[in-house]
Every structure is written in C-alpha cells, then in structure tokens.
TrEMBL record:
It comes from Streptomyces acidiscabies. This is Alpha/beta hydrolase. It comes from the Bacteria. InterPro entries: AB_hydrolase_fold, Pept_S33_TAP-like_C, Serine_prot/Carboxylest_S33. It holds the Pfam family Abhydrolase_4.
Amino acid sequence: MTISRVLALTLTALTLSAAPSSAAAPALDWHPCGIPGQECADLSVPLSYGDPGGPQVTLAVSRLAGTDPEARRGTLLVIPGGPGGSGVKRLSQQGEALRRELGSAYDLVSFDPRGVGASSRARCELPGEDRHLVTLRSWPAADGGIAENVERARRTAQACADNGGPLLRSLSTLNEARDIDRLRAALGEEKLSAYGVSYGTYVGAVYAQKYPARTDRWVLDSNDDPNPRKVARGWLANMAVGAEARFPDFAAWAADPARGNLRLAERPEQVRELFLSLAADLDRQPRATTTPGVPLTGNRLRQAMQTVLYNDTSFPQLALLMRQAMDPAATPVLTPDVAGPMPDEDAAITMAVICNDVRWPNSVPAYERSVAENRARYPLTAGMPANITPCSFWKDAPTEKPVRITGEGPSNVLMVQFRRDPATPYAGALKLRSALGDRARMVTVEGGGHGVYLGQHPCADRLVTRYLVTGERPARDVVCD
C-alpha cells in the first residue's frame, strides 16, 4: 500500500453506512485446518466500507459442518465476546457441545473479528506492564488516586495513535456487523441464525437492527446495556453493581463447612469483611508471588475476584489465593490472566473498539470525583468501574454514531440472562429487553455467573435449544429457578 493511499484512508471516514456490506462477497474456499472436525477459510472484507474496492483485510473463518443435509435448516453464527474474543477459538471449545445439543440443524460457523487472532491483526506496540489486565482495567491507587491511571491512559492512547494505523481506526461494532453481513453473503445464506455471548450480544443486537430481514433465529446470552450515549462506558460502570450482586454467591460458598481447608469464615458476611480487609492489607504491603516481579497487590486480588465471579467452578481459585495471602509461610500463586500481560493485539482491539464506538469524557477532575464516590458506594471494585481509560485521550473521533436499538423488525430474538451476572449485569439486560420490545423474549436464570447456555442449566438450555431447533419460542418472558 502506498503512503499516499494510507494518508487518504487516514483522512477519510473509515466506515460509511451508505455502502452495502455484502456487495460482491466472494464464496468461501473451505479447507482442512488444525482444528479437529472443522474446516477453515479466509474472507476478504473492505478496510473501509466507504471504499469497498480499496484495501482489504482478512477474516479467519471456521466451520463445523452438519452431517445430515436433510436435517439442515441453515447456518448458526457464533458471535464472539470481548471485544477481542476469537470466534475460531470459541467454536473449537464449544462446537461439539453445540452439535450434541442441536444435531445437524445447522452448520456451525464463527470467525475472528478484524484485528483478532488469525485475522489481520491490529497492534499498539504497548509495553508489557501496560498490557496487564490489572492496568488495562484502570484500578485506582491504594489511596484512591488516579494520577498513574491518567498517565498510563495518555501513554496508551498515544501508542495506539502512533502504531495502530488504518486497521486500528477501522475497528468498531458497526464494522463488525458489516463484516458479519459480508460473511452471510459469502456463505450463500439469505438469513443467518446467531448465538452471541457477552459483547457478542451487542454485536448481535446491532446486526439485527441494521439488517433485520437477514436474521432468522437470534439468541443473545449475557446481555450488554445498549445505551447509545455510553456504550462500553456504561458496561464498565455496571461492573460495580455486578460484583456487589454476585459476590454473596462466593461468600456463601466460602462459608460452607463442606469447603474444608478452603472455608474462609463461619458466615457469608464475614467472608466479605475478610476480602475487603485482605485487599486493604495488600494495598499497603503486597506479597511476593511465584511469578517473578509480579506481586499480589490489593488490585490484583480484586481483579482475580472479578474474574472468578464469572463461574462457580472458579470459586476455589479465589479461596485458595486468599488463604495463601493470609499465610506468611505460603507464596501466593496467580492465575495466568492475572499474572501475565495480554497479547498486544488483544489489548489493542479491546481498546480500539470501545474507543472508536463513542466519544468518552476527558475531564480528569470529574473522574477523580466519580472514582471517590464509586469506591465509597461499591467497595469490592474500589472505584475501577468509574475510572479513566485510554478512550478519554483517544486521538481519533468516532466516525459514526452508535446504533440505537429499537423494536423495529421481526420478533425472533431470545435473550438468556443470569440474575446475578458480574460482567453484564441484569439491569443492563433489562434495558436491552426494553429496547427490543416485542422483538424479544427473555429467559432469566435465578443464579449467578456469566454465560448461561450450555452451562448445565437445564431449564434455560432446554428453552434455547428448542427455539434454535424448532423455532418454538416462549410466548412471554420466563424465569428459570
């Protein structure tokens, strides 16, 4: 690509809604790949849908084809979460479970979004210390100060501006929806069915809003708040409420005498007090861990807590880490997601999508006030959900307005949601349910975690599977005990 071409793209809006996303989409050339039972292909999509004949980026696509052509009704697209999640990886993890549940009703297809995994990758060239989850999430200092967060946010935004190039500037939820429609056309499908999880629910909702006539059976699991004024800023803020709603599940588990050596207290409320006290102690005096140069700080304990709350099966990890932190003779062991840096491309796409989707406020004093209020109200997350991020200093303004989700379109969406979800809280899911109106029905599971379907919740699994296989959807919203 010539320098003049790059400059032209840089100065031109990268995503224009007027251009049809599926124009001249080539058929996919499937071939065996290193994923057992699956086929892979590459799909070229425009870097800019305002210039569909210009530079292209490559999306990695994978398929687990149905084995009974007579039973086939179409393609089920697995929309990955994130932003920054790999659909190819997710299909390799969940494909066989989906096949057992759905039979041969669908070819199961997923993809790595632009910038991710085996697709054309985006990079910011961030140093390792700035790619740790505990720094990307902008946890405040032990005293609640955010000066270090502000400095890192400025540094990160500048690095992405200097090194990201046109690809990084093209990353957005709207462009992912357009890429999906390009994929639909390449698959030869008039309509797609979909199963989106977490951020994939927002992508799915945006696609269903933009291309309603091209949706068949649409399942959204663990749902994001669609507020078009905030988008990811609202998702981050909701994490404070989510942690407070979900932590009692861990506390009850850790107070159960059946936990043996992992029992932390006699009563659940004591587990909460212990966690807050331990985090404060680690703020003042971090503990060395088995990972050289990576101490267990109060914020790493909080980040570990937030991750563990996604699934009950992870509760022993947090209980063990707390036990180790309280034992002077023990050396705490951090899980890889807490101990090590994220790959540069993962960090880049996560930030680029949320920063490119909508403009974020940039008043440092306003963030200082918000963090102080948030720490007092939601002590488990210590102000992180209200803190500043690189988006406040992002160099490129969003080129398009976020999509407003409405009830216009076919009534073909089935939402499924935990009552106590730490990452995409119930209140946000209710806002999406309200926005979709009669387009949707919602299945609420009386439990906690993130990601319902295929997670051993028979009532919800049965309702989702029945809808995808037969088209029979609940007549009204349902609560599963």
